[in-house]
Amino acid sequence: MRDCGLSGFSLFTDDPAGQELEHCLKGHLKLCDVISKWEQAFLHHASQRGRPDTSRTVKLIYKNRLYFKSSSRLETEKERLLLCYQVNEEILHARFPISYELAVELTALMAQIELGDLRGVSEVTSSSPTAGETPHRPTADPALQLVPQVVEKFLPSRYWEDNTNAQDIRLLHHKVQEKWVSLRGRSLADCVRIYLTVARKWPFFGSKLFHLKVKQVGGEGESVWLAIQEDGLSVLEYPTLVSVLSKCLYCLTLGVPNTS
Q1: From the CB of residue 206, how many other CB atoms can be counted at a distance below 10 Å?
Q2: In whole angstroms, what separates CA 46 from the centre of its chain?
Q3: What is the pLDDT of residues 43-93, one digit of tens each?
Q4: What is the pLDDT of residues 119-151, one digit of tens each?
Q5: pTM of the full predicted structure?
Q6: 89-199 has which CATH code?
Q7: Dihedral angle at the C-alpha atoms of 157, 162, 168, 171, nearest 10 degrees?
Q8: Cβ neighbours of residue 98 closer than 8 Å, sequence gap 6 or more
Q9: How far is CA 188 from CA 2, 67, 71, 151, 155, in A?
Q10: What pLDDT is stored for residue 116 in this prediction?
Q11: Tell me, what's the pLDDT at 219?
């Protein structure tokens, strides 16, 4: 594990009060002390609510806090793998711009990364069925059951959750299955490389996005994304993630004493 100052990765805990927050841990802290303080804070907040949940435990998250584009060539294999999962989380939460077709391809790549080859399913035809046709159904039921699970885990819910048309859902599953089968024989490292190569084409890859509202006099502020990168800040349109304000580079102003 590289130093966080070099890798940009840090260890986080979830919030003991149950809020949608993550707390970044300083490097000098001992894990046993962190767990002890988290449990104390959890019991304090739980007692105030009157219903302490003794089954809950601290959740530790190791993830990228600040992406250093300049040192991407020094990334370890584990760091690249973690970046894939982190980018997928951004995609699921609409913090990464993606089309339907690209979402299907990246879902298949994540399936290959996590589960490997889709066994027991023959090569599907290169042409996908139209909306009026019935997709080809392989006879391998165990393998076929993996596809809906992969879709729910790695594909943004807007593409499947509210769709009540069974034919559309079958077509979606077929497309993911087709892409997944086409990756047969690809190694984990190869799929990680492909995934990150595609993801890094977005100029704001690795940015930390914060949902803000622009203050306006006499009206409700407009929603925007504030993208924080290693070398500056950018403002992106909400929710399209299109840049509306060029990057403001960080600068350091040094005070010069008046010698007159």
Answers
A1: 22
A2: 30
A3: 998 888 877 677 889 999 999 998 988 889 999 999 999 999 999 999 999
A4: 877 664 444 555 555 555 544 456 778 999 999
A5: 0.84
A6: 1.20.80
A7: 20
A8: 91, 106, 156
A9: 21, 22, 22, 19, 19
A10: 97
A11: 75
Q: How far is CA 53 from CA 13, 33, 132, in A?
A: 18, 21, 51
Helices 141-154 and 166-182 pack at an angle, to 10 degrees, of 100
Query: How high is the pLDDT of residue 131?
Result: 53
Look-up of token digits 């003794």:
54
Going by C-beta distance under 8 Å and a sequence separation of 6 or more, which residues neighbour residue 127? none
Token output for 199: 């993801």
Instruction: Answer yes or no: are the C-beta atoms of 160 and 148 closer than 8 Å.
Output: no
For residues 63 and 83, is the Cβ–Cβ distance under 8 A? no
Q: Collect all residues with Cβ–Cβ distance below 8 Å to 187 and sequence separation of at least 6.
A: none
Q: Where are the domains of the chain?
A: 4-65, 89-199, 208-249
Give pLDDT tens digits for 161-181.
888 789 999 999 999 999 999
Q: Quick count: other Cβ atoms within 10 Å of Cβ 131?
A: 8
